[in-house]
Amino acid sequence: MPLLALAYLAFIGLGLPDPLPGTLWPEVAPFYGLPNAALGLLLAGLSAGYIVAGLTAGRIIETLGIGGVLAASVAATAVAALGQATAPPFAVFVACSVLAGLGGGAVDAALNAYSARHFAPRHLNWLHACWGIGATLGPGAAALLLARGAGWQAAYAAVGATLGLLSLSFVATRRRWDDAAPAEAGMHVTALAVLRNPVARLQMAVFFVYCGLESGAGQWAATILAARGATPAEGAAAATLFWAGLAGARIAMGFVVDRIGPDRLLRLAMPPMAAGAALFVFGIADLAALLVMAVLLAPVYPTMMALTPRRLGAQTVHAIGFQVASAMAGVALLPGLMGVVADLLGAGAVPVVLVALALLLVLLVRRLPRV
Question: d(Cα 313, Cα 172) in Å, to the nearest integer?
């Protein structure tokens, strides 16, 4: 199987388990007799594993090679899902979430490190669109199994079995990933050296702000619209539109990013994205404003990954791991901060935070060195 095709499948697999904790929680919580707040333990474990994997990915890749990391990490995500499918004690269930985060973060870092060096920016956009496909298929499969009378364990088992098969593909091809990697003998770079690089730190800041903004807009859209008088169904539809727009735009951007130029595309997209966020603050054409934000945010993550080797050279492997960790930290922290703002000032104040993050993202992207 060509490595590009396997990379597409891997990104779909990476998205499969991510939405399962929230999707299946209405079934899992009564099974364990837990309050809804306990879902935070699962999400915290997942985020912690993801961040640790991102911070250590560079060193692990140097030790095991990209092929070895991909094979071991996809297997870890499969073991985590299959472990949860056995309905173990809840402490073990949380530990499996940590393992899933470790595996997912390592896969994310290794795949992005390889793809940024070997594939054109259009493929990076399409690869990350595949994550959205996986994040749609995972809950869809769970809904189908539940509708047919299967328990929540069946959904975790199905995802775990799928990831197990995918891990066998990486075991079979593990040497090809490293044979195709460019030789960098004598160019060993320490993680500390990367953290001292101002460009690397600036890119980490972009990923932190971007992912917090993207996740915050998608997670809070329904609540904001409900505060403005929308029905729950309309709020859910708005959130669906946002995520669908993000995935669809990444597919579309793949056809134009190489023609426009990845650096230029980001600089052109950010100011109108912030304008869309401003429209959302004032409640002007809410659905259109959300869609504008989603479409113009879509190329940031994959295109920034594609540009990392050009900006950071031999520091790329460590830098991409740090970027993945920064992205997950943004997802973990900034939407929660929006929740604090909503509790203190009301849901109507959350769009103001979104605008502030959007303007900060415009500034950070403008400061990036041109390539």
Answer: 29
- The tally of domains found in the chain comes to 2
* Distance (Å, whole) CA 365 – CA 134: 28
In a domain, 187, yes or no: no
What is the C-alpha separation between 41 and 97, in angstroms, rounded?
9
Q: Say yes or no to pLDDT of 171 above 70.
A: yes
The predicted-structure confidence for 18-56, as pLDDT tens digits, reads as follows: 888 877 888 898 999 988 778 888 888 888 999 999 889
* Pairwise CA distance, residues 189 & 346, whole Å: 47
Structure tokens at 250: 């990444």
Rounded to whole angstroms, the Cα distance separating 117 from 219 reads 32
CB atoms within 10 A of CB 215: 20
Cα–Cα distance, 293 to 146 (Å, whole number): 33
User: What is the domain range of residue 267?
Assistant: 192-367
Q: Are 159 and 21 in contact (CB under 8 A)?
A: no
Residue ending a domain, choose from 182, 207, 235: 182
Same domain (yes/no): 204, 144:
no
Say if residues 286 and 241 touch (Cβ distance below 8 Å).
Answer: no
Per-residue confidence (pLDDT) for residue 179, from 0 to 100: 56
Q: Does one domain contain both 165 and 220?
A: no
For residue 212, CA distances in Å to 61, 88, 153, 191 come to 27, 32, 31, 24
pTM, to two decimals = 0.82
pLDDT tens per residue, range 215-255 = 888 878 888 888 888 887 788 788 878 888 888 899 999 89
The span from the CA of 223 to the CA of 221, in Å, is 6
Task: Note whether 54 and 323 are within 8 A (CB).
Answer: yes
